[in-house]
Structure formats: C-alpha cells, structure tokens
Design a protein that fits this description.
Elements (H helix, E strand, L loop, with lengths): L1 H15 L30 E4 L54 E7 L15 E3 L2 E5 L4 E6 L4 E7 L12 E6 L2 E6 L3 E6 L4 E7 L9 E3 L2 E5 L4 E6 L5 E6 L12 E5 L4 E5 L4 E6 L4 E7 L18 E3 L2 E5 L3 E6 L5 E6 L7 E2 L3 E5 L4 E6 L5 E6 L7 H6 L3 E7 L2 E6 L3 E5 L6 E6 L10 E3 L2 E5 L4 E5 L1
Length: 457
Amino acid sequence: MKRLLLVFLTVLVVSCSFDNKTGIWRDASTTLEEKQSLKTITDNDSNKRLEDVFIKKKTFNQEKEPVNFLNIKIDTPLKVENWFEQYAIASNNISNFSYNGNKILLSKSSKLGKFSSDTSSTNRNILFYKNNLITHDYKGTIFIYSLNLKKKIFKFNFYKKKFKNFNKKIYFVINKNILYAADNLGYIYAINLDDKSIVWAKNYGISFRSNLKFINNQIFLANQDNVIYSINSDTGDANWQFPTSLTFLKSDFKNNFALDLISENLFFLNTSGELYSINYITQKINWVLNFKDSSQAGDTELFLSQPIVIKNNNIILTTEKAVLSYNTLTSFKNWDFSAEPIFKPIITLNHTFIVLKNYFLICLNNISGEVVWSKNIFTNIEDKKIKKNFETIADFKIVNSEINIFSKNGHLLSFNPNNGILNYFSKISKNGISSKIFFLRNNMFFVDSSNKLLKFK
C-alpha cells in the first residue's frame, strides 16, 4: 500500500511541473524556469507595530456644509503624456488631470479584444505609450492599438498551447522602450516595443499578484504568497526577495506598491493587512504596520483595501471600514476616519477626497482628518430614474480642478471641490464604461462595455 501511495505522489508531482523541454515561443528554450539562489533581506531592525483600525465607530453617513467659504487649493492640472504603469505615476496619486473639457466624442475603435470574465473590467491593465494603447486579452495576447491609425498594429502571445484555456492576468510597467509583463502563471518577461522582440523571460514558479513599479533598473512586484521581489530589469534575475505574512484567503484586493522617489522608499501593502516601508537603495526595512484584526484567531478574515497613495510625506490607506493617514518617515498616525471607501483616495495640497460605498463624496483636512464637507452625490439630482439607473461607480478623478465621478452605465457627474455642489451631469457613453478613465494629452479615454476605446476632446 505504501509503495502504491509513493508511486501516486511521484506521478502527481511530475504531472504538475512545467515542461522544460520546449520553449513557450520559438527559439526560447534557454529562457524557461530557472532555479535561482536569491538574496533575502531581513527585518530584524525594523519597527513593527500592530495598529487597531477596527475602532467601534459608526460609519460616516451625513451631509455637512463647509463652515465658511472655502477656496480649496488644488494642484495645477497635470498634462499626462504617457501612462507607463497602472496608476500613472510612482506615488499612485495624481491630484489633478488636465483636459480640454469639451466632452466631444472624437473617435471609437473597433473591439479591442475579449477579457477574462472573472476579472473586474475596471481593473484591466491598460497603458499608453507613444500614442498607442497597450493591453491584453484573457488568452494572454498582448496587443498595441494605434490611436493615430485607429487600428491594431501589433499582437503577440507569449504562451504555448498547453495554457490556451487558462485565463491570463498580466500586470504591466514600461520603462523607456521596454514593456515588462508579469502574470498569474509565474512568468515575467520583457518586450522591446520598438522592434517587437523578446528581451528576456523567466519563470518564478508561482503566480504574481501585484502592480509593478520600476526604479533604478529594478522591477518591484509580489507573488500570491506576499513575497516581494526586486528584479534586475536587464536580465530578469532576482536581486533580492523578502517574504511577508501569507494569507490563505484570497479576495479581489491585490498586493499594492507605491514609491516615494524623494525619500527613496518603497511602500508595500499586502493581502494580510501589513504595510511595509523599505528603502530601495539600502534594502533596509524602515517600519512595518499591521492592520489585521487582532481579535480574529488565525487567518479567518479577509483584509480588503484600495491602493495606497502618497503625497508630501503623507501616505493614506484604506481598510473595509476606515481611511487612515500616516507619516511616511516616522510611521506615526496622523488620523483615522470611520468610513467605507470604494476607491483609492485623492490627496491634494491640503485636503483628501474620498468616495464611500453609501455614495457620499467627502473632503477631509490633511492635517486633522476633520470632515470639511460631505455630500451625497445624488443630492442635487431630482430625477429619481437617474439614481435608479446609475449602477455602480466606475472611476473617480479630479480633472481641471473639479471632482469627476463616472458610473459604469456611462454617466459623468462633476462637483465643486470647495463645497461638493454638483456642477455638471450628463450621460457620455450609451454603452457604459468598462475601464478606468485615462486623461492623456488633454484628451479623455475609456473602454465601453462593447470593448471599444472611446476618445473625447
């Protein structure tokens, strides 16, 4: 009986391993799975602290008018030329986008491709490089759509036939002319966007599950077991790795990175509810905060969050029940606010804006966390059918110094940042909105429910 069991286990292990005899693409046999001796950084000298964010407070649910007339200072609108990573910039926070603002539809593409049914459409990985859109479909085919020529000019599938029925989730970052892609099969590879060639490819044997950051020839990413990797961008080899706490329960929240280029620190929020500050030059861990509920025994509760955002030594993160502000250098808490946010906050010069699950739009003071004003986004909309048909919110951005909220069924609501009063309301897409909203070169882009790219002037 023991012999039969041993034979069965041996066959099972062999059948689950990767095929290392043939390449995933032509002439690629030398770039398959490699066993590497990785340098591991330690956190022996780090400042660890458990943060109690499960404060028994009532979730905020009331409108508040500003006490006095406000002239809230918003950063100068930023004209974005290229969208090289998931959240556009290293800090994950653009306070104010520049846009012509005419809301005139200029063009609509043909269907871009089919996407995975088990992935939130508004979390698709879409980048823009030299007036081209770059994304992928559920089969793993990466393609480039030219905004000038209004057609696909390149498509490439890295994967061999044995993975054809496996839904691919690919995470991107671009540096110079190189696209770096990591996936849920454990592969990371680099594509030269000028000559469309593979630069290198590696397999790390476990699904990657995070956004990607690039700095100083390093690619930062994490796998599904919450292990952080620093990857050499020239070779694909690992510079170092650092394991953080593992969670066995998986949610839609993915490991999230942000960079502070001034302090040279990398911030990592994992699916176990831990926030790490790591100096990416010295590889020293500055501090660790743990936001998991200490009253729960074992790994029995999911940690849910929106992406972290940074501005002026202020890092804001969210949990399912709170919004919290910390000093990036000292890790000291600035304030916490009991609420149920559904998008990553937007930090401006002196204020932070958030949107809640209960459709409240709120302005907070960056120093105290005090509510400056709050509004239900439907307060000034008299037509009850609009609220009924609004569905869920697709995106939330500040554009030309006004707060814009987009619904998945194609509505745009624009609010005054000084008081939350509704300034503009219109349906801008008959086929809804099925991606994040992108503002590039003073134009607005998004993908509708028919998987077509819409460009607005």
